[in-house]
Amino acid sequence: MLNDRQEYTGYIKSEAKRLGFLSCGIARAGFLEEEAPRLEKWLNENRHGQMQYMENHFDKRLDPTKLVDGAKSVISLLLNYYPEQTQQEGTYKISKYAYGQDYHFVIKDKLKELLHSIRSTIGEVGGRAFVDSAPVLDKAWAARSGLGWIGKNSNLLSKQAGSFFFIAELIVDLELEYDSPTTDHCGSCTACIDACPTQAIIAPYEVDGSKCISYFTIELKDNIPAEMKGRFDDWAFGCDVCQDVCPWNRFSKPHREPLFNPHPDLLSLTKKDWEEITEETFRAVFKNSAVKRAKFDGLKRNIAFLKQ
Questions:
Q1: Where does the chain bind [4Fe-4S] cluster 1 (predicted)?
Q2: Angle between helices 103-122 and 5-18 (to 10 degrees)
């Protein structure tokens, strides 16, 4: 059995590495004072559009001790999803994070295993795993624990790995050694702001979620507004533009997670294939993929909008 904070911390970080996580950082659990007014302003200005769930559990979003009794530490983990190969040129595009199996399930399994290892080695530890499915400000926690800084496109950026990674957390009632935040390295660069097809990055570090292509193609259940016609750059599910142009992503390396590999047919689909996709093909190609969030009808709606 391990018996001090330094040993616990070293063990948790080495286990995270063994499970394939890109990096692991730890911050003291507590109220996110700086984020509170920003989140409130963002919601008041209706930057979340129809994503009503963003309004729920405001206090829990800002304070992990309201999610886990006696929470002491927030363990943030990054998992790389940058693909070795991308879709062919001149076709309808989907976000790289959705190429393989739905990350919620892949990461949840790894987090459960990590929590199990912690309990069997350290002892009775109370905690919960979070993957983008509960009110946790994951980018804020990852930044607090030194895994990167929040860039002008509001994504977490790392000097070593860019931004093509998922963020997940374990919130535990265990005192650990805490990491320090890193500094901002965006400098005077405005590549993401200049490249955004719908001008969703309304100011440095400020994104209007209701103008983002990802919002229109995944979250929006109504028809896509006519004024957006011709501005989607052929993105049918999600959008990677602000990441693709980010200079730090030249350091992205292909992931080593077999479950994130795309269905063999995905990368070769032409525009014609997408336009004629049947429900059967949709189910086969996107069997366990995040693309299922848009549903078959949603994907058809998006493609019809791009085609006009």
A1: 186, 189, 192, 246
A2: 140
Alpha-carbon distance 266 to 275, whole Å? 14
> Cα 163 vs. chain centroid, distance in angstroms?
9
Q: Would residue 132 show up in a list of annotated catalytic residues for this protein? A: yes
Alpha-carbon Rg for the chain, nearest whole angstrom, is 20
Residue 137 tokens, joined = 């400000």
Q: How far separated are the first and last CA of the chain, in Å rounded?
A: 64
Q: Which residues are annotated as a binding site?
A: 61, 132, 153, 156, 167, 186, 189, 192, 196, 212, 214, 221, 239-240, 242, 246
- Residue 33, C-beta contacts closer than 8 angstroms, at least 6 positions apart: none
Distance from C-alpha of 94 to C-alpha of 81, rounded to nearest angstrom: 14
Of 141, 118, 169, 127, which is closest to residue 27 (Cα–Cα)?
A: 141
> Which residue has 């980010």 as its token pair?
246
Q: What is the pLDDT along the chain (308 residues), one digit of tens a residue?
A: 667 999 999 999 999 999 999 999 999 999 888 876 776 776 677 665 666 666 666 677 789 999 999 999 999 999 999 999 999 999 999 999 999 999 999 999 999 999 999 999 999 999 999 997 667 889 999 999 999 999 999 999 999 999 999 999 999 999 999 999 999 999 999 999 999 999 999 999 999 999 999 999 999 999 999 999 999 999 999 999 999 999 999 999 999 999 999 998 999 999 999 999 999 999 999 989 999 999 999 999 999 999 98
Do residues 24 and 13 touch, judged by C-beta distance below 8 A? yes
Instruction: Please identify which of the residues 4, 59, 109, 132 carries the catalytic annotation.
Output: 132
Residues constituting the chain:
308
Centre a 10 Å sphere on the Cβ of residue 87 and count the other Cβ atoms it contains. 18
